[in-house]
Specification:
alpha/beta; two-stranded antiparallel ribbon; 9 helices
């Protein structure tokens, strides 16, 4: 009989593409992954992995069994969801991921509320960018991810994921306090055509959105600095090194040398939670979404 944990290891290898990445996703050592795979090969009597340079690849038999493993594990998750739903108790563990400002703005209140209302539920959280969050939910590494898109640039959500809107997060332009536009009640993005910009790192969804949005306003962005953390971005602004777009969710204290001005063409991020539809009936998922919505409503 096939061992479920070994099938889970094979599934992780197929999804992550390497022993080290599979080990990280499963929160085990690389030697544990190798041992599980060796045992699985003995169980099925076929070679499932083959050397590929310094790494490994799945053989034909490995890919065939990995396809079955994915379906088996999905059925197991569905069975667990049904059992949890029948008991109606919020217990066990729920794993949440969110992009940094959502983690800062929503997780403290959400985790605190879940602990108070459901003491037998273990909550684990981690920061990650929206695309990574969606991939982690699909792979089963996360139970629920908080992701975002923009009113003029949507983030594709694959089939098989359920979603719940949390809030619309309005953004402002941050500029040095001595900037020529710092005293205005509203600004147009086109007015920053000659300014340097501080942006998120290249390749991130929000960086691509900023470039897309500025170009749609006839501005070719002069991106001088990149930083993933909003506190770092604001520190660069305070030093007079450019301007940036800064969301209100999880913003925290703004340095004295930074002025915030709303944008006339209202820019907002749509923040929502996603989870696998085959886990939709789990009371822990429903409890997490309820707590997130309550905290988000207080943050809006």
């Amino acid at each position: 009989m096939l061992n479920l944990e070994r099938l889970r290891t094979l599934d992780a290898l197929a999804r992550h593409g390497s022993v080290s990445a599979a080990a990280e996703g499963l929160h085990v050592t690389t030697s544990a992954v190798s041992q599980q795979m060796a045992k699985l090969e003995r169980e099925v009597g076929q070679q499932l992995l083959a050397r590929n340079g310094r790494g490994v690849r799945l053989t034909d038999a490995g890919r065939l069994l990995a396809d079955h493993a994915a379906r088996i594990l999905s059925q197991v998750e569905l069975a667990q969801s049904d059992i949890e739903a029948q008991r109606g108790q919020v217990v066990g563990e729920v794993r949440l991921g969110a992009f940094p400002t959502a983690a800062r703005g929503l997780f403290p209140g959400t985790v605190g509320a879940l602990r108070a209302r459901h003491p037998e539920l273990r909550v684990r959280t981690r920061e990650m960018e929206p695309e990574s969050g969606i991939r982690s939910v699909i792979r089963g590494d996360l139970d629920l991810a908080i992701v975002l898109d923009w009113s003029n640039k949507r983030l594709p959500v694959p089939a098989g994921l359920a979603q719940a809107r949390l809030l619309d997060d309005v953004t402002d332009v941050a500029m040095p306090a001595g900037h020529r536009l710092a005293g205005r009640e509203e600004v147009d993005l086109a007015e920053f055509a000659e300014d340097d910009w501080v942006s998120w790192p290249e390749g991130e969804f929000c960086h691509d959105w900023l470039v897309f949005t500025l170009r749609s306003q006839g501005v070719e962005p002069r991106i001088a600095h990149m930083a993933g953390e909003h506190h770092t971005q604001l520190a660069l602004i305070e030093a007079g090194l450019g301007v940036c777009v800064t969301p209100r969710l999880g913003r925290g204290p703004v340095p004295e040398g930074v002025a915030l001005v709303p944008v006339r063409q209202r820019m907002s991020r749509h923040v929502y939670a996603v989870w696998r539809t085959d886990a939709d009936r789990r009371p822990s998922i429903r409890a997490a979404v309820t707590a997130l919505r309550a905290v988000a409503e207080g943050s809006a």
